[in-house]
Amino acid sequence: MVAMDSDLRLRVVHPTQRILTGRVVRLLEGYPREVRVGQPVLVAVLTAASVVGLLMLLVRSLLSTSGGGGARRGWKDLKKGPEFLVTPLRVRDAAGLLYEVELHGHLPQSALHPADHVQLTLRRQPDPDLPPRVERIVNVTTGQLLTPRTATVWSHLGPPLLLQALLGALLLAGVAAWSVVTG
User: Fold this and answer.
1) What is the dihedral of CA 27, 32, 33, 38, to 10 degrees?
2) 0.85 exceeded by the pTM?
3) Which residues fall within 8 angstroms of residue 31, CB to CB, at 6 or more apart?
4) pLDDT at 3
5) How far is CA 87 from CA 73, 106, 133, 181, in A?
6) Does the pLDDT value for residue 65 go beyond 60?
7) What is the pLDDT of residue 25?
8) How far apart are CA 124 and CA 105, in angstroms?
9) Number of other CB atoms surrounding residue 7 within 10 Å
10) Average pLDDT in the 8-17 region?
11) Contact 160/91 with Cβ under 8 angstroms?
12) SS in 3 state form for the chain?
C-alpha cells in the first residue's frame, strides 16, 4: 500500500485550468490550516473599536459601581487567526491524468465519495507550491451543487467587534469633520 501511495505522488499533478471534470479517486486525511490576520487590518479595527469601548466604559462607570464588562479576546488570540479544515482531494480526468486539489472547509460527510463524477471550479492559491483550492463542486453523480465555506478574518473578528469598530470609525470621522467645520 505504501508503494502505491508513493507511486501516486510521482504522477499527481496540479491542474492549471479553472474547471476540472473527472472522477473522485481519493479524499485524503484533512488537517487544519490557519488564516493569517494582517497586522494593519487588526490595528485599524482594534483602534476604531477602542474608541467606542472607552466611551462604553466611561458610561458604565458613571451609571454603575459594578464593573460587569464581558471578557474580550486579546491581541494574541485575534492575531492568531481562525483555523479551517484542508482536505486534499485527488481527481482523475477522462484522459487518465491524476490531479490534486485542496478542499477548504467542511462539507456534509455524504457529499463526496470515491468514483463520484464531479466538475470542480478551482482558484489558484497565493503560494504557487500549493495545489489550487476548490471553490465549487458539482457532483454530477448525485446532482448536488456544493460550496465549501471556510472561516475568514471577518468571521474571526466577529460581528460585535466589527460593529464596535464601525461605530468608532464613524465617531472619529464625525469629530474630525466637526473640527474642520468649526476650526
Assistant:
1) 140
2) no
3) 85, 86
4) 43
5) 29, 9, 10, 56
6) no
7) 94
8) 16
9) 10
10) 76
11) no
12) CHHHHHHHHHHEECCCCCEEEEEEEEECCCEEEECCCCHHHHHHHHHHHHHHHHHHHHHHHHHCCCCCCCCCCCHHHHHHCCEEEEEEEEEECCCCCEEEEEEECECCCCCCCCCCEEEEEEECCCCCCCCCEEEEEEECCCCEEECCECCCHHHHHCHHHHHHHHHHHHHHHHHHHHHHHHC
Reading the block at residue 14, the C-alpha cell is: 496540479
Q: Which residue has the higher pLDDT, 31 or 6?
A: 31
Please give the C-alpha separations between residue 64 and each of 58, 83, 91, 113, 164, in angstroms, as whole numbers.
Answer: 10, 39, 62, 59, 21
CA 132 – CA 116 distance, rounded (Å): 20
pLDDT digits over 109-144, tens only?
788 999 999 999 999 998 889 999 999 999 999 999
Q: Residue 78: CB partners within 8 Å, gap ≥ 6?
A: 37, 42, 46, 156, 157
Q: 68 or 42: whose pLDDT is higher?
A: 42
